[in-house]
Amino acid sequence: MTSTDAAAAGPGRAGVWNLPNVLTMIRIALVPFFVWFLIADAPGLRSESGLWRWAAVLAFAVAIYTDKLDGDIARSRNLITDFGKIADPIADKLLIGSALVMLSLLGELPWWMTLVILIREWGITGLRFFVIRYGVIPASRGGKLKTVVQTAAIFLYLLPLAAFAPWLSWVAFAVMLAAVIITVWTGVEYVMEALRLRARGKREARPDHGQEQA
Description:
75% of the residues lie in helices and 0% in strands. By secondary structure, it is an all-alpha fold.
């Protein structure tokens, strides 16, 4: 199916093998390379801030760019598919999660920050599936801001520039702290939205609901 045919098919009916989905799968494929680059740069889990670290930075940057690119293409060409709706957030969580875990393993990021973010991310993902029978929880502006701030913080942590700019580590910590705060805040918002969605779904499912509306 060509991109023109897929676009004409409408949202949700475009073929799986379209450009946005291919970009999403490339992002998933980049994750093990990104992790391997970080490990190659850190024998004994001590980063040497060498070429492999820069390779990890490049891999992360490319992966993040594909995230923006596939979304823009999917919306502009009407290539939104069910596969993309599932695979895209999974790709994001794999990339962000692997980056956080690796930075903590290298001793560069406090484990409590990594755990708070991961528990929130996978917890909200599970919550979305739990309430999907009542409806879909849409991505909020706060959720999008959270992703941007998390990405910026990780990128700052990955840059091997601490030897030249020691203040960069403090900037990276401050941005990551902001990311943690926004992550928790938006997590609470999603929980409240899920509770409202579930309550509304149960109310509408009651046998007497139709009579009340009449």
